Amino acid sequence: MSLSSVYNRAVSFVFKKTSRYLPPRLFFHMQYRVAMGKAAHLRHPRTFNEKIMKLILTERDPILSVLVDKYRVKKYVADRIGEEYVVPTIGLWDSADEIDFNSLPEQFILKCNHDSGSAVICMDKSSFDCEEARRSLAGSLATDYASNREWAYKDVPRKILAEPLLNPDGSHLDDYRFFCCDGEPKFVYVSTAGHINFLSLDWEFLPFSRDDFPPQETLPEKPSRYEDMLRVARILSKGLKFVRVDLYQVGEQVLFAELTLYPSGGVMYLSSYDQDVALGELLDIQF
User: Fold this and answer.
1) Strand pairing partners for 180?
2) Cβ-contact 275, 81 below 8 angstroms
3) In a domain, 269, yes or no
4) Which of 21, 55, 113, 190 could be cross-linked to 197 through a Cys-Cys bond (beta carbons 3.0 to 4.6 Å apart)?
5) CA–CA distances in Å: residue 254 to residues 52, 226, 229
6) The domain containing residue 24 runs over which residues?
């Protein structure tokens, strides 16, 4: 085993034992070493992940807490591009015990406003386990999503919201994620069932990939409302150093999904370090 491998393993062991106590900058240095096996250069970031970590450490605009709040961001978006792009909220509660399932339709989705991955989907209310949903959401609501040092989440007032189900047949809903710098989309990341495709704005494959979600062998179909998506991404990203604008197309309607400030918390796993460098070069983030 090489000296470098021994060092990386030692850092990984120490990080697992002490991460909750580390100051933010040291946390990110060690996290990057564990994830990428290399030192992070945060003073003069070059790679995609280094630039995201630098943003986490330096940006302190209060509007960021609104942008990451899945409930409050809806008004922000509606004010800029119109309410027709916003998925309606059909229920809002401060705790899981308050959820009024009788007021909800036969199909719906429940999620916390301050985290990622907490969604609970109801395809058929007659067979839906309401108590299990309460337990799951109570656990998610209690999770401190800012514990990974993502500052914008620190002061989000935690809620549970309900929305109508956008894919009532249970089919996969493709997700179009535009990586933008101050009103300029740079590339689009298309998430389909089991695949992630990095594409240019001209809808051509870019030479990036993730080991956990390989790209498709053929280009995914370009959405019919693609130009409208680009317009929306430009408007919503204007004035922000970096943001990922996530959108859906349902039928012929473009719908807003969320604004993502810190993709993968600064440790998005690309297939190589060279890809991390090349992807970073596409983002002209001004520090």
Assistant:
1) 185, 243
2) no
3) no
4) 190
5) 27, 9, 7
6) 3-58
Per-residue pLDDT of 138-164, as tens digits, reads 999 998 877 778 999 988 999 999 999
Domain C-terminal end among 140, 163, 186:
163
Contacts of 220 (CB under 8 A, 6+ apart): 174, 190, 192, 195, 197
Six-digit token pair at 175? 């997700």
Q: What is the pLDDT of residue 2?
A: 66
Rounded to two decimals, what is the model's pTM? 0.94
Report yes or no on 138 lying in a domain.
Answer: yes
Confirm whether 236 is domain-assigned.
yes
Number of domains in the chain: 3
Same domain, 188 and 220: yes
Q: Which token pair is 48?
A: 């995609």
Cβ pair 270, 168 in contact under 8 A? no
Report pLDDT for 3: 56
The pLDDT of 181-187, averaged and rounded, is 97
Residues with Cβ within 8 Å of residue 173, at least 6 apart in sequence: 166, 167, 248, 250
